[in-house]
Amino acid sequence: MKKYLVIMLSICCTTAFAQTVKPIFIQDSLKLISSQFKFTEGASVDKQGNVFFTDQPNDKIWKYDINGQLSLFMEKSGRANGTYFDKKGNLIVCADAQNEIWSVDRNKNIKVLFSDFEGKKVNGPNDLWIDGKGGFYFTDPYYQRNYWTRKASELDGEKVYYLPKGKKTAKIVADKMVRPNGIVGTPDGKYLYVADRQADVTYRYEINSDASLGNRTLLFKQGSDGMTLDTAGNIYITGKGVDIYNPKGEKIGHIDVPEDWCGNICFGGINRDTIFITASKSLYCIKTTAKGVE
After folding, report:
1. Where does the signal sequence lie (predicted)?
2. Residue 218 half-sphere exposure, CB side, CA atoms within 13 Å?
3. Sequence-distant (≥ 6) Cβ neighbours of residue 213 within 8 angstroms
4. Which of 281, 256, 211, 258 is nearest to 25 (CA)?
5. Rounded CA gap, 127 and 197, in Å?
6. Exposure pattern of 164-191 as b/e (b: 16+ CB <10 Å)?
7. Distance between CA atoms of 235 and 1, rounded to whole angstroms?
8. CA–CA separation, 264 vs 255, rounded Å?
9. CA torsion angle for 276, 277, 282, 287 (degrees, to 10)?
10. Is the N or C terminus of the chain more exposed, i.e. has fewer CB atoms within 10 Å?
């Protein structure tokens, strides 16, 4: 009888606990901010919580501030794709026009951080993540652009690179991929997540002390265009809407977005509890009970 009561109490407590768990989001709270763009990408957040994103075909970077105001931040953005803020508040940009990576300060002054690999143009830096040392990892898939004069890659594959802080020479850190795209690392610097969009998988790597990667693990069988993390370690990936996975690689949620494709994602706002989604011609947001790590 005692054993039976213990089991029943355990079930009741578990049920009661489950009933108090709040959902991460409510689908009906998805909000359209604007649909005035051609194709949005590269969402990132600054220290204040303002969100920046790109409209790559129109060669512009936009800002959506914490007061709900949308404004044009920069024209002639180098056909900016993925973006990320460094600790000094500079916007680091994958400038796809000339296959470079730029640093853009608050006054829109441009500094080229990376321009080639062993004298050859890379495929097209797509997305990036900055580590605690100030170096950054970036994916380099080949997507033919109509504004390029070249018609083929100069390199032997599509890879992931690491550029140490203050250096001009990058090194290959992951090469056994078909088409790497979305990328993000954990705040403690232990793990790097990389999506292979063509193979439709996402890997987790251990980050070594020299910034090299090791112990690749297949985390889940789904690739993505962009990704971000919350403080619980959940991974948010974009594609046909937004899918959410826990750190074990188990799918725990899906945000439906009424657009053909979602390119990128970040948490923003003063409390970092609102998800911003770049989706085809639009920008959306949705309030959550989670908090982003950026």
Report:
1. 1-18
2. 9
3. 160, 173, 174, 192, 205, 206, 207
4. 256
5. 12
6. beeeeebeebbeebebbbbbbbbeeeeb
7. 44
8. 13
9. -50
10. N
Contact yes or no for 186/233 (Cβ under 8 A):
yes
Nearest CA-CA partner of 270 in 289, 291, 284: 291
DSSP string across 178-214: S-EEEEEE-TTSSEEEEEETTTTEEEEEEEPTTS-EE
Tokens, residue 191: 């793990």
Question: What's the one-letter identity of residue 168?
Answer: K
Q: Which residues contact 5 (CB under 8 A, 6 or more apart)?
A: none
- Domains of the chain, first to last: 31-144+153-287 (2.120.10.30)
* Tokens of residue 23, six digits: 């959902």
Give the pairing of strands 235-239 and 40-45: unpaired
Asked if 292 and 286 touch (Cβ cutoff 8 Å), the reply is: no
Mean pLDDT computed over every residue of the chain: 93
Please report where in the chains the tokens 């889940």 appear, as a residue.
220
Q: What is the pLDDT of residues 73-132, one digit of tens each?
A: 999 999 999 999 999 999 999 999 999 999 999 999 999 999 999 999 999 999 999 999
Q: Is beta strand 40-45 parallel, antiparallel or unpaired with respect to 31-34?
A: unpaired
Taking only the tens place, the pLDDT of each residue in 37-89 is 999 999 999 999 999 999 999 999 999 999 999 999 999 999 999 999 999 99
